[in-house]
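Troubleshooting: if your tokenizer reports a length mismatch, compare your output against this known-good record of 168 residues.
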Amino acid sequence: MSLQPWEERPREEAHLFNPAFCAAVLHEFVKEYQKSRGQAVPYVLLFCMLPIALHGKTRRALPGSTLTSLYSWRERNPEVLVGFAQRARSLRPIVQEALRFAVDRTVLAFASDGGVILGPKPLSVTKKFEHTLTDDARECVAAARLLGRWLAKAGTASTILAAWGIKP
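Known-good structure output:
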């Protein structure tokens, strides 16, 4: 999927896949991952996280806490794999656009190992900002935070991708 010029995108797509919004979602994921694991997020996990956080059915199936094992949860919820690989592939340009947006604004940066870290310019996704979002958008932000903590505990990037049926 290549991205259409901004003015030619359908309105719903432009709102949900807005680079600033997706960058904020990525930021919240990276912030929670770094806080939990103390290291950079493997670059490839961004391409796994956003399709989970933005997809309503998958997002609503996520556990309530990080105490649930990713692997046992995935076994109990096999339906989350339906269409996931295709969704991840089709959202690749959206993730790349959001990451460029965040890196350009120094909200996110690349670590020396190629992972993604918080950039020098702090971004605060405040409760006041969240109140301006739709319920769906607030759920995306909350899911990104949960995924940051959860995937930080789940093992290596390759095992996480394997749990989602993705081969790097």
